Amino acid sequence: METPKIKNTDNLPPFAAGARVRYNKNQKMTKQRTETKMELLANCLEKRGLKSTKQRHYIADTFFRSNTHISLEELHKKVKRKSPRAGYATVYRTMKLLTECGLAIERQFGDGQTRFENVPEDGHHDHLICLKCSEIVEFQNETIEQLQDKTATELGFNVVRHKLELYGYCKNCK
Amino acid sequence: METPKIKNTDNLPPFAAGARVRYNKNQKMTKQRTETKMELLANCLEKRGLKSTKQRHYIADTFFRSNTHISLEELHKKVKRKSPRAGYATVYRTMKLLTECGLAIERQFGDGQTRFENVPEDGHHDHLICLKCSEIVEFQNETIEQLQDKTATELGFNVVRHKLELYGYCKNCK
DNA sequence: TTGCTAAATGATATCGACTTTCAATTTCAT
DNA sequence: ATGAAATTGAAAGTCGATATCATTTAGCAA
Ligand SMILES: [Mn+2]
Ligand SMILES: [Mn+2]
Ligand SMILES: [Zn+2]
Ligand SMILES: [Zn+2]
How many domains does chain B fold into? Predict the structure, then answer.
């Protein structure tokens, strides 16, 4: 039997590859960054006494080159194009590893799927999500961030992370 | 066999009954509001051609009297004190109904559990969540709301709802 | 190179939080 | 009271995430 784990493989995903608005203005930058990240990963593996394997390389490389908020299912599909025998579990484990290494960010946009994105070189951002076409647009707003901290401080909290998601309709869908 | 659905019933829940900071200053208000809500529910049921049942009454009443962000499991446990044969599925269906009627809000704070809270009479609020003791503090910040809308508008979005959660350590836990 | 040993892999099983199904029960308009 | 339609509770199903385990592989050492 084929992997019965993944069901809704071919109906369009709830949050398909959303266009990003800030990154990867040109391919050169992406390429360079990917190489750097592979080195960072190599360091991280060595530091932990982990082995450098073909699968990890394929999966990380595929992820680093993706500029979307990608689900495990989507990533697994991509990886299998180059490495058809790669298992879903290995993709899962590798993305967990990349997250621990600080090379991936786990996101949860409210559909049932965990998504991963590359760590942005220009700092934290939040997300706008179109309820119709699932486009995801990223934004940074320092004023909001400051107000969040101020509010938290007033209530006696130390904020270590936050989640700000704006759901609505994009230019094309409103 | 007992319901095998609910597993982690007795180890402390990841987001236990968090103290609220804004509501239910006195019990009178809660009581009055609960009665009003029961009427609203009755209207909603009638409008939909649904029946008024003992279970719905118990569940809604228990929920309206709770002033926490309560999970189905927690609510089910409470309901069973008065109505021991009440099933989890009925609690689930009733909370779905209350949500559709605009009498409950579904929340997702990042642990695997969906939580429900009463609709506040003083409008929308967002949440601070303690990563250690799971206290949940509510806040309102109109400036942040406006900045969200402004940001979205600049990027061509119409926001219909949003999610803002600040995770950190509360007064007692920092 | 060749073994050796620990780590990694991939198929499969399991978990857990819902969500649906269905036979038995209850509501409520006649 | 009666009967059609809705509701209930137990159980089964769903589905993404995670664990298990036999087999394979990486990397070190002889
Ligand atoms: Mn992003
Ligand atoms: Mn709240
Ligand atoms: Zn759109
Ligand atoms: Zn705390």
Answer: 1
Tell me if A1 is assigned to some domain: no
Point out the residue nearest to C12 (C-alpha to C1'): A3
Is residue A3 in a domain? Answer: no
Residues B53 and B43 sit within 8 Å (Cβ to Cβ)? no
B111 in contact with chain A, both atoms CB, cutoff 8 A: no
Which has more confidence, B41 or B14?
A: B41
Estimate to the nearest angstrom the gap between the alpha carbon of B24 and the chain centroid. 14
pLDDT of residue A32: 61
pLDDT, residue B174, reads 87
User: What CATH number does residue A28 fall under?
Assistant: 1.10.10.10
Q: For chain A, say whether B21 makes contact (Cβ under 8 Å).
A: yes
Q: What is the mean pLDDT of residues A52-77?
A: 97
DSSP letter for B19, please: P
Residue A48 lies in a domain: yes
* B153 touches A128 (CB < 8 A): no
Cα(B118) to centroid(ligand 2), Å: 8
**Region A147-162: what's the mean pLDDT?**
97
The pLDDT score that the predictor gives to residue B24 is 34
Residue B55 lies in a domain: yes
Longest dimension (CA), chain B: 57
For the segment B29-49, the average pLDDT, to the nearest whole number, is: 84
Which residues form the domain of B32? 9-168
The answer to whether A107 and A114 have CB atoms below 8 angstroms apart is yes
Q: Whose C1' is closest to the CA of B54: which nucleotide?
A: C26
